[in-house]
Amino acid sequence: MLRIPTAALPPGSYGWRGSSWMMYVPAQPSKQKRKFSSFFKSLVIELDKDLYGPDNHLVEWHRTPTTQETDGFQVKRPGDLSVRCTLLLMLDYQPPQFKLDPRLARLLGLHTQSRSAIVQALWQYVKTNRLQDSHDKEYINGDKYFQQIFDCPRLKFSEIPQRLTALLLPPDPIVINHVISVDPSDQKKTACYDIDVEVEEPLKGQMSSFLLSTANQQEISALDSKIHETIESINQLKIQRDFMLSFSRDPKGYVQDLLRSQSRDLKVKRETQGVLEWKTSTAGKRVNVVLQGQVRGFRAQGSPHAPSQVMTDVAGNPEEERRAEFYHQPWSQEAVSRYFYCKIQQRRQELEQSLVVRNT
Fold it and tell me: Which residues, in sequence order, are CB contacts of 123 under 8 Å at separation 6+?
C-alpha cells in the first residue's frame, strides 16, 4: 500500500521566507525485506505547471546501477495553496515485461507480459488454429489475423522472436492523481493507494534448496513410501467399506451378484488357461497332442486328407445350445467332419488291435 501524507511547513523552513509544504511518498511497512524503491524503475511527480513554472514543476527519480535503495521519497516546495499533482510510477518487472501492440493484444488476449510468455501464447495460438505447415513443420501458414500483424502469409517460427521486437512497447506506468492540501483545517492529509507488484515467493527458494540437498533425499524417499502405503491402505479400506455397504443394503442380491461374477471369472479362466488333450493315430504311430487354450485350424501330422481340427473349450452357453439356430452356423460342417474322422480312427485302432491279437 502506498501512503502519501502531506504537511504544511512553518514559514522560514528550509531557507524559504514564505510558507512551504512537504509531501512524503513511502510504502506501508510489510513483511517484505525489500526497500520501497526496489519495486520501481523510475518515479516522476508532475506539479502544477502554472504555479511552479516549466522548469521547476517536475520531480524525477530514475534507477541507475549505483542507486541506493530507500524506503520513500520526499518533495518540498514553497507555497500556501493546495496543489494538484500527478505521480507516474514505472514498475521494475523481473523478468522484463512489455506492452503488446493492440492488434497482437486482441489476438492473444494479453496486455502486458514477459517475452517468453508472449512467444508461448503465440505457439498455443498456432497449435489451436492448426497453422503449422503439415509438410514442413518449421513454417507457419498465417490466417488473416496473423498476416495482418506480421505482414507476411508464411514465416518460420524461429523468426517470430525477431519480428516481435517491433510489436512490443514499454509497459504503461502507474498513474496517481493526488491533491497536496496545505489547509490547516483539512484533516485528510494522508491518501492511501493500493499497487499490485510481483514479488518472489519466499517458499520457492526454500523448496529448491531443500530438494537439491542430498541430505534430504532419504527423508523424501521415506515420505514417498509412507504416502504410497497410506494410499494403498485407503484403497483397501474403501473396498471393504463398499462391500459392507452393498451387503447391508441387499444381502441376498449381493450374494447372487457375487456368485454370477465368480461364475463369469471361472468361465474366462477355463477358456484362456484350459488344457485340451487330443489323441489320434497317424501312420501307425500314436501321437499325443496337448493344446493350451483355443486352437484353430490344426491339421493332424501325416494325414493330408484329414479335415482341419478346430478345438474349443467344453464350456458353452446351455441356453444357446438348446436352440436349433446354434447348429446351423458355419462351424457345424467342420464339426461333423471331425466327429466322423475321429470315429473312423477309433474304429481303425480297434481293428488293428484285434488283428494283432489274432496273429499272436
Answer: 157
Rounded CA separation 265/263 (Å): 5
Residue 209, exposed/middle/buried by CB under 10 A (0-12, 13-18, 19+)?
exposed
Tens-place pLDDT, residues 226-244: 998 999 999 999 988 988 8
How many C-beta neighbours within 10 Å does residue 175 have? Answer: 9
Q: Long-range contacts for 169-172 (Cβ within 8 Å, ≥24 apart)?
A: 169/98, 169/99, 169/100, 169/101, 170/98, 170/99, 171/90, 171/91, 171/93, 171/97, 171/98, 171/99, 171/112, 172/99, 172/112
Query: Which position has the grid cell 524559504?
Result: 16
With a threshold of 0.70, does the pTM exceed it? no
User: For 138-159, what is each residue's pLDDT tens digit?
Assistant: 899 989 998 999 888 898 888 8
Q: Which three three-digit cell numbers place residue 151?
A: 505482414
> How many residues comprise the chain?
360
